[in-house]
Write a structure and sequence with these properties.
UDP N-Acetylglucosamine Acyltransferase, domain 1, 5-stranded parallel β-sheet, disordered N terminus
């Protein structure tokens, strides 16, 4: 596993990382985020407070994930997606490129 220079991205010190987590350049991860094992997060993503990402999830480039989103084990979020507050992506689901997902209760 290779580590990127700290000056290229911002990650809060109040997050939980699993094993073998890869984070791309330009990605911002806010407080209280939980990331499982074997997760890939692409370049220029934003993970807001309280996001939970399951084991083996794949988040491609330029994805914005708002507060309280839960991404299940093995889920795949394609490039340039927006996941609104409270969205739940179930285990093994695939979100296609350029999608906007919102919680209909909000």
């Amino acid at each position: 596993m290779r580590f990127l220079p700290i000056t290229k991205y911002h990650i809060s010190n109040k997050i939980k990382f699993g094993w073998n987590v890869r984070v791309g350049l330009g990605t911002v991860i806010e407080d209280e985020v939980e990331i499982g094992d074997n997760v890939y997060i692409g370049h220029n993503c934003v993970l807001r407070k309280g996001v939970k990402i399951g084991n083996g999830a794949n988040i491609e480039h330029c994805v914005v994930i708002e507060r309280g989103v839960v991404i299940g084990d093995g889920a795949n979020i394609s490039s340039q997606c927006y996941l609104g507050k409270g969205v739940i992506v179930k285990e093994g689901c695939k979100v296609r490129p350029n999608c906007v997902l919102e919680d209909p209760r909000r």
